[in-house]
Amino acid sequence: MDIYIRRVFEGEAPCDKCTQALDCKEYEWACRAFSYYVLHGTFHNHTARNPTHGMFNKIFKEDDKALKNYLKSKEDK
Prior knowledge:
Layout: H1 3-10, H2 21-27, H3 32-40, H4 53-60, H5 65-76
């Protein structure tokens, strides 16, 4: 199994123990810890958790070059 997918499904997500998780879900907010998790399948506990709607849009609604590059690298292998 791909290491990235293994990290996502077997590891802890930044939202799992976060007190702001319900607000993020309701208001479409995201923080830097979650954005790093989306890109790398892991996160650092010390990463700032100041969720914003702008970060949510950057992750889910804008063109994500990093994700496209990751998928392209997988196709090349």
